[in-house]
Batch of 2 targets.
Target 1
Amino acid sequence: MATLNPTLPSKKRPVSSSSSDPFPAAKKHHPHAEDPVAALANARHEFGEHGGVNMSIEASATFTVMEPETMRRMFAGELGPDRDFFVYSRHFNPTVLGLGRLMAAMEGTEAAYCTASGMSAVSAVLFQLCSAGGHVVASRTLYGGTHTLLSNFLPRTCNITTSFVDIRDHDAVDWAMVRGRTNVLYFETMSNPTLTVANVPELCRMAHDKGITVVVDNTFSPMVVSPARLGADVVLHSMSKFISGGADLIAGAVCGPASLVNSMMDTHQGSLMLLGPTMNPKVASELAGRLPHLGLRMKEHSNRALVYATRMRKAGLKVIYPGLEDHPDHATLKSMAIKEYGYGGLLCVDMETEERANRLMNLLQNCSQFGLMAVSLGYYETLMSCSGSSTSSELSQEEKELAGISPGLVRMSIGFNGTLEQKWSQFEKALSRMQDVSKV
Ligand SMILES: Cc1ncc(COP(=O)(O)O)c(C=O)c1O
């Protein structure tokens, strides 16, 4: 069946940019220096069917043709989505493809396609890049779901095994890549929950020397870091987080070379086509409307996280935030981050015991309204969870210790509602209640 070709023009749709290339990001010769917000603004603007300023929601599962010959040509691969010929929405859908083009522009990749969840983006890429018996080298600090996929599910179902390493220990990463017949080096730009930052350019160089594909989950740091501009082959997102910003949708994206996206859509061998984690076009339309203000939102998430981390530290709390100069990865993040977007919206407070962590979160939610006890991140309200007993509870005690997850670690995704000072006074109120109780 027909595939995407980043160089072919669209046949029917009006476009605002002078280029009708479906993937304008592919043309940039110096993508490294490019700001993702500028790249998004340069991307082709998809208008609605009747000239609407927003693209239409193509709410069709299947598509008709004017002549029977067209159907034959689509299945022969002669006509495809680049020329506005669509077959069936589990394959390409125009609205989902429109969002994919924006994601490709933002991440500086040739192509992108969006999926029903972040986990389906992660699993579909691993299924596509590894065959039975394949090997992955992965960071030992990963989102719990991805960690379990790699440590339990993939070995059981298809004998794809993973060596987990400390991604900051480059000798260990190198050794693990050489030892197995490695297909993929997998890590998160900024990883859950201890906010370890991977040195993307250096890790890419090491993997590429050995012909290994680098897959980076950039869910925690959209705009702040652009892994593909730093050398990564594939960038993944859970769009359920900062990109959505509303804590109301589950969605994911795979950004990478057009050859990879096309291979994932292949009718005989494609993981997206055959496993079918398809994004609903109504969700794609929602998300396309939120991407233009992602840059503004990230600036404010990061600004408040830095201010609060600094003040929490001054108040005597044990804070982990990569924007603080004494964070072990501060220099690495500074060297990769685009300055305007700060150091990200997540910080951790180590309360040492789960009991103290729960007491603080309870006061912050139920006494002072600083935030909500909930997993996930990227919402306009601050979200708080005790990582060891929630998003990382899949890890064994030993794995938690190796990943530096103390039982009292509270992860906070800092929101931007209310004023900065109003929210800070709510934090102080809860903290002083906590200190009063400990004195009794
Ligand atoms: C870093 C990271 N990757 C992937 C996922 C999975 O995303 P989703 O919940 O959208 O399937 C999550 C979140 O839950 C995450 O935090």
Target 2
Amino acid sequence: MERVGKSGNAVPLSAAVFGSTGGIGRALCQELADRGCETIHAGSRSGADIGVSGAAPFAFDLTNESSIEAAALSMKDDPPEWIIVATGVLTLESGEGPERTFKRLDAGAMAEVFALNTIGPALIAKHVLPLMPRDRQFVFAALSARVGSISDNGLGGWHSYRASKAALNMLLKNFALEMQRTHKQGVIAGLHPGTVDSALSEPFQSNLPDGQLIEPGEAAGNLIHVLGGLGPQDSGKIFDFAGKVVPA
Ligand SMILES: NC(=O)c1ccc[n+]([C@@H]2O[C@H](COP(=O)([O-])OP(=O)(O)OC[C@H]3O[C@@H](n4cnc5c(N)ncnc54)[C@H](OP(=O)(O)O)[C@@H]3O)[C@@H](O)[C@H]2O)c1
């Protein structure tokens, strides 16, 4: 990672963002490009061109492992230095929102949240991590959430979302331990972006304290700054937008 961005931290020359049409994912592509990242693989369900310089679109679906495998294979000759998984759901496409009480649990909805927030990112790791170099640093990061922290949970609710992110955090730790055996310089991390103005947070913004909601561009800049400062000793941890470790 030779390039140093505006922040003074490392910025990769190449990256892949899974979830490039999301609020945070698109902003990550834009900020990476603005900071000098030359090649950005920008993945979404539609495979849409997001209009960011240097961004090459590709299509994948978290619920279709073959599409993830094909996306990873398309990067195998020149694997990106950073892979960021910026996908995720809080409200399902059916309109079913996060459960406030266990009385609202529905097995199908719960399985869908886990498929999208936990299993999909894990399958991306399954197909992308084997491409990573053993002799230099790489970063694999997935957007998690502070509410996935068990020790930090003082409020309850949002059962499937919280549990799916806690499970994602466990998998990231497991993958970090496994990769450390062969890829000493690898970094695998989870990220909490803060409360970001996006389609995901939009239904829950009305009661936020003033100043808590941040714009996607600012959030993306924060996350890139955090990732650029990480080293192998940080692998397996979850970081918030200020670079502080989120406890398990
Ligand atoms: N916004 C916040 O305040 C906040 C706070 C904490 C954590 N996070 C986390 O940050 C991440 C990004 O959130 P966001 O705010 O950017 O949400 P968003 O704007 O709703 O974006 C969600 C992304 O997930 C993708 N996605 C959903 N289902 C998919 C599928 N089956 N296959 C492939 N992609 C799929 C969407 O793709 P399409 O464009 O194809 O729908 C979109 O790119 C999530 O993991 C979220 O939990 C966000």
